[in-house]
Amino acid sequence: MNLALRNLPAPDFPEIIDRAQLDRDLDAIVSAHSDRKQRDAAIKQRLKEELARGRETARLWLAENAHGRLCAQHISLQMDEVIRALHGYVLRHVHPARENAAASERLAVIAVGGYGRGLLAPGSDIDLLFLSPNDTTAWGHAVVEAMLYVLWDLGLKIGHSVRGLDECIRQSRADITIRTSVLEARAICGDMELADVLAVRFDKEIVQGTELEFVSAKLAERDERYRRTETSRYVVEPNVKEGKGGLRDLHTLFWIAKYVYRVREVNDLVAAGLYSRSELAMFLKAEDFLWAVRCHLHFVTGRAEDRLSFDLQPEIASRLGYQVHPGLSPVERFMKHYFLVAKNVGDLTAIVCAALEQRHAKKPAKLDRLLRPWKHPKPKQLETPDFMVAGDRLTVKDAEVFERDPVNLLRIFHIADRHDLALHPDASRLITRSLKLVDRRLREDREANRLFLEILTSHNAPETVLRRMNETGVLGRFIPEFGKVVGMMQFNMYHHYTVDEHLIRSVGVLAEMESGHLSEEHPLANSVLPEITSRTLLYVAVLMHDVAKGRPEDHSIAGARVMRKVGPRLGLSAADTETAAWLIENHLLMSNTAQSRDTSDSGTVQAFAAKVQTLERLKMLLVLTVADVKAVGPGVWTAWKGQLLRTLYWEAELVLAGGHSTANRSERVAAAKGATRAALPDWSDDEYEAYAGRHYPPYWLKVEPERRVAHARFLKQAAAAERWLATEFTTHAAHGVTEITVLAQDHPRLLAVIAGACAATGANIVDAYINTTTDGMALDSIFIDRAFADEEDERRRAARVAKTIEQALRGDVWLTDAMQKKAEQRHRRTRAFDVEPQVIVANEWSNRYTVIEVSGLDRPGLLYELTAGVARLNLNIASAHIVTFGEKAVDVFYVTDLTGSKITSLDRQEAIRKTLIEVLDTPTAKPAAVPVNA
């Protein structure tokens, strides 16, 4: 405990507080003010000025030297002096101690919790324990109250408790949180002997014999904290304090060391045998860096902000002095450093856990198996005498095992995978120290590459083993191209993890699909997986598909080049290497086509199939796409995206199998009409023929059978009611979307008004199908993100959106004001991003339409503004496809002029580009909201 350390020596700081002068100033204020209110106000003002001066000094000092731990210590020492000054003022002028007071009138002011460690961030809580011998006297309560009122009025967040000695011991025994707080206790002022008594009793009555209880509780707390925040330390908006690999993990390590090993200072960890000097240096560097980031966060935001969000990352990177590097921005370099530090914190945690196991203070862990419900029995004999099993963990026989045979650096992971064994931290430490052995000779060793491919393509849990290989540094050394993306983040809101974590998770998704665990979620991908001839090729492509991120060129093209270099070394044949390179170069093709192109357009499908060329590539590309998208992060994969991918796959499969000719399309139209007729037995033939004649041929190809039947009944009901403006909605829980169908008179501004109404109600459009009938009506299907899990809640919300659409189309509501409010509600995080606006006008992407692809920074109401811009250009929108990649919006419109022809005039194409670029460049665009009937 720190209670004996009453007066911590200050490092070589700039002057903190001249407390002697501060005491004189407070005494002078008392002498100058007879009025109590005026005196109290002046006292508070003087202390507030001292705090502000000290905080500003700390901020400037941190900016100059970037030592985060010393900054936190500076702020803590400053707070100590303010509390001592306040305590002295109260005892001298407010509630003086009586000369012949009872022994019970004793009070110690003790810092606990984080403040007890002697470290404070600018916005941290100030946790204080006011300790008395037994029950606190009236005098003691009066002193505490006087001090707290001043501290609160200074704007400080005070966490406090007032306890007697016995109560403090009793509550420490009953509550692990209080016990941890007292463990960190540090006396500031008051009765120091009383503080020493607490230290002795706490160690004797609480700590001794309860090590296992404490360690188990703190590790359980840590696991629950991970669950609340995010289990991965590689999320791209980490919590510096509570996140995995953050300061709280270092605190937990030190709590355990203090409790179990009786250490007082971090430097004592070496003497206790927990860390080597190099590992202690790693601890200190990690702590210093994380404190620097946390203190900067608090200074920048002016509050206790511990989440390193996108909008704050560039500012923190700038304050820490990071510079641009080819392919990496300053913020990406900063965040790569952050994640490497988080990885080091994980390594330090593993070392302490291993030491605790040896003391029997913690139960040993096993290699986590996500895919396999059974466990191998503990092996009696491993494949090589170089390794052994100790405490259900795989470890080395001696310290020369890797020097004797560097292939063992791969073999140990291979054995761990085969026998379901976690690595012993001693083995992990030796691996990390032996990384220099992973050289060119080992990379080209045939046996080493065989072992690596078997690890990668294991039917057990390759994700788990690959992640451990990555954390020890072996993966990045064995495949240097992978090593370049370790800890690398992509500064966007789409990707949730670092590049290396995303790639390893992608392999995990592939393994889950292959095991059959995701058959309901990904039925098509699961069904084609067994048909793929080379699963090794597929696993390699999945692991390497983003390996060229962070370069100044297109990562897909650069990644294909890397694959052509690495493939032969891994043992792939020339043909498999080329196929893997093709998959990497085109790994975004299927996702982009499915989400942003009209797959009912024959030109779209023909162009996609021409790039794919074979059914085998199509199958592999589908599986790679699913693994890639699903591993981006929570909530990125949706059932709607799965449906889009399946539709594209089926259309492309037809082409690659030799179908999709003009005659075939005519036959498919006829078949679709026949199937719809059969589903409407209550209709007469004449009635159905008249209805079918209202639709152009593309309608029958791009609308699913169930929706065609629903459309038929919807139009019939509208005609019977003599309604020429009508809406209906259908919730698709399985796909995560809600469909709103709109019947209205066709008009160039129709989609703009619908989009505006959706945006005004907060509904996010993810796709739109525009169908124009032969009698001048529009039958549009708008798909919006589902907002509620409960079906009734979602139906009520859909009804509100549909009603707003009808009101907007009738001209009963004016959208401009509502849309302006939405546009002004700019998401705080998106301001940190700079997405270059781009507009592409292409006639070669479709046989019938001009395709306009618009990309730029997303914002509320953007689709409304874009569709209004298209309407002002007198263009008809045949279909629209809306995709959002985090902060980036990619909207694609299939259009014609008012005569139904493509836009061939170069001048008009340029006018389209200019108009839509202006929309993207204007953050608060105000397109005219003209009703359709205007």
UniProtKB/TrEMBL annotation:
TM regions (residue ranges): none
GO molecular function: [protein-PII] uridylyltransferase activity
Recorded catalytic activity of this chain's protein: [protein-PII]-uridylyl-L-tyrosine + H2O = [protein-PII]-L-tyrosine + UMP + H(+); [protein-PII]-L-tyrosine + UTP = [protein-PII]-uridylyl-L-tyrosine + diphosphate
InterPro entries documented for this protein: ACT-like_dom_sf, ACT_dom, HD/PDEase_dom, HD_domain, NT_sf, PII_UdlTrfase/GS_AdlTrfase, Polymerase_NTP_transf_dom, UTase/UR
Annotated EC: 2.7.7.59, 3.1.4.-
Obligatory cofactor(s): Mg(2+)
UniProt cross-references to PROSITE patterns, sorted A to Z: ACT, HD
Domain notes from UniProt: Has four distinct domains: an N-terminal nucleotidyltransferase (NT) domain responsible for UTase activity, a central HD domain that encodes UR activity, and two C-terminal ACT domains that seem to have a role in glutamine sensing.
CDD domains according to UniProt: ACT_ACR-UUR-like_2, ACT_UUR-like_1, NT_GlnE_GlnD_like
Activity modulation comment: Uridylyltransferase (UTase) activity is inhibited by glutamine, while glutamine activates uridylyl-removing (UR) activity.
HAMAP family: PII_uridylyl_transf (MF_00277)
UniProt protein name: Bifunctional uridylyltransferase/uridylyl-removing enzyme
Spans annotated as Uridylyltransferase: 1-381
HD domain sequence ranges: 499-621
Residue ranges of domain ACT in the record: 739-820, 851-932
Function statement: Modifies, by uridylylation and deuridylylation, the PII regulatory proteins (GlnB and homologs), in response to the nitrogen status of the cell that GlnD senses through the glutamine level. Under low glutamine levels, catalyzes the conversion of the PII proteins and UTP to PII-UMP and PPi, while under higher glutamine levels, GlnD hydrolyzes PII-UMP to PII and UMP (deuridylylation). Thus, controls uridylylation state and activity of the PII proteins, and plays an important role in the regulation of nitrogen metabolism.
UniProt record similarity statement: Belongs to the GlnD family.
Keyword annotations from UniProtKB, A to Z: Hydrolase, Magnesium, Multifunctional enzyme, Nucleotidyltransferase, Repeat, Transferase
